[in-house]
Amino acid sequence: GKTGVEWLVPIGVTAGLMIFLSSMSPTPPVAAAAPGKPRFAQVLAVVNHRCLPCHSQHPTDALFPAPPNGVTFETPEALHAYAAKIKQRVFIEKTMPLVNRTQITEDERALLASWVDAGADTHD
């Protein structure tokens, strides 16, 4: 069996990681969704601030030397192709961004869901 000391290491590492992640400076919120169909420019603003730090060919987030699961959102075509998955992970499950590293707001989550629901157009 494991001794008490062996169990402390993973707990300490996990706690330390969570404290580190929660201490990261928040970024300012992107403009809130206007009523009706969101403009693609609004969607891009949210994606650029909240998704691309990890989901790009060259992530700027130090924890990700490569995009998670190889998923990138650098082109309108990629955003359109992943639209349903984006809604699922960002709006329904709220599992992205990972531990909300990029401080996405509830309004931004709703904007992305509205965009998907309106057909995930990639032009205004």
Question: What does this molecule look like?
Answer:
Helix 2 crosses helix 5 and helix 4 (83-92) runs antiparallel to helix 5. This protein has five helices and no strands. Mean pLDDT is 82; it is low at 4-25. With 124 residues, the chain is mainly alpha-helical. The protein is 47% helix and 0% strand. The protein is globular and about 35 Å long. It has helices at 4-22, 40-50, 76-81, 83-92, 106-117.
Number of strands: 0
Quaternary state reads single chain
Low-confidence stretches: 4-25
Structural class: mainly alpha
Strand/helix succession:
HHHHH
Main beta sheet: none
CA radius of gyration? 17 Å
Mean pLDDT: 82
Q: What share of residues is helical?
A: 40-55%
Q: What are the SSEs and their pairings?
A:
Blueprint: H1 4-22, H2 40-50, H3 76-81, H4 83-92, H5 106-117
Helix pairs in contact: 2-5, 4-5
Descriptive tags:
mainly alpha, 5 helices, 124 residues
In short:
This protein has 124 residues and is mostly helical.
